[in-house]
Amino acid sequence: QVQLVESGGGLVQAGGSLRLSCAASGNIFAITAMAWYRQAPGKQRELVATIPSGGSPNYADSVKGRFTISRGNVENTVYLQMNSLKPEDTAVYYCNAAIIPLATMTVDRFWGQGTRVTVSS
After folding, report:
1. Nearest 5°: phi and psi at 84?
2. What is the mean pLDDT of the chain?
3. Residues 41, 46, 68, 71, CA torsion sign
4. In angstroms, rounded to a whole number, what is the distance separating the alpha carbons of residues 69 and 102?
5. Is residue 73's pLDDT more than 90?
């Protein structure tokens, strides 16, 4: 019953910005960490940024200084502010969270369906 839903993807020009959003829903006891991944065509899925609950964010070298991950005022939300976008940022972006559902009280990882980001050159 736990679900993650992403939004905010789209087509932008190089140098532009987008903000991705992710909201977790369901019978959740706690979320220990949230993250953003991305997967470009023909490439493996890669970690973009992570933010533990109450911790400091971490970024892949390829996006450091350009992207910012943050937790929303609503506990079960996470954002990815993407600035100075480059064509190589083109990918499907996926939200991921380590969640403890009420039904199990055991931590598990959940994925969103993905939102597509296309950066034109």
Report:
1. 50, 50
2. 96
3. positive
4. 26
5. no
Separation of alpha carbons 20 and 80, rounded Å: 5
In angstroms, the CA 1 to CA 32 distance is 18
- Summarize the chain as % helix, strand, coil (round to 5): 0, 60, 40
The CA distance from 63 to 48, in Å, is 7
pLDDT per residue as tens digits for the range 88-99? 999 999 999 999
The burial class, CB within 10 Å (0-12 / 13-18 / 19+), for 22 is buried
Interatomic CA distance for residues 53 and 15, integer angstroms = 30
The 10s digit of each residue's pLDDT in 4-48 is 999 999 999 999 999 999 999 999 999 999 999 999 999 999 999
Q: How far apart are CA 16 and CA 81, in angstroms?
A: 11
Distance CA 121, CA 116 (A): 16
Is there a contact between 76 and 25 (Cβ–Cβ < 8 Å)?
Answer: yes
**Alpha-carbon gap, residue 15 to 82, rounded angstroms:** 10
